[in-house]
Amino acid sequence: MKWWRLVFLLLFLLLAGSCVATRMASPSLSGSPNAPLAPCPASPNCVCSEDPDPAHRVEPLAFTGPATNAMARLRTVIRAQPRTRIVSDHGDSLQVEFRTRFLRFVDDVEFRIPPGAQVIQVRSASRVGYSDLGVNRRRVEQIREAFGQTSALNPP
Known about the structure:
By secondary structure, the chain is α+β, with helices and mostly antiparallel strands. The protein is built from 3 helices and 6 strands; from the N terminus they run αββαββββα. The chain is elongated and about 65 Å long.
């Protein structure tokens, strides 16, 4: 097989996979605010602040003041991110879709404030594939940094 046919075939398969991935429905929220976020699968394309596995664990987003103010700040941070869509907003929980720049793969991110807590629990996972090359972890850390800067600009 000539090399250009192989390249064409790989590009076609990549494009077809991208089309399938972007058409997949977003998963529903994990459940009630009292329930923990869903644990990550064994694949390395997920991070969660409530996951017991250190390889998947990230710290939750800490805040002071009323939970409603923290969620408003978080919404501001999320809306400033490129290629982002808030799928559902239930006051104390958000479900968000992030699309990658190239090929438009979807990552599902869930934020939740447990009743009485001063943290926002977070879970970020790629919808398809095995590895995300650390994209979900970096995204959560970027959101944490922007959330902290927003907090510093708008003290309670």
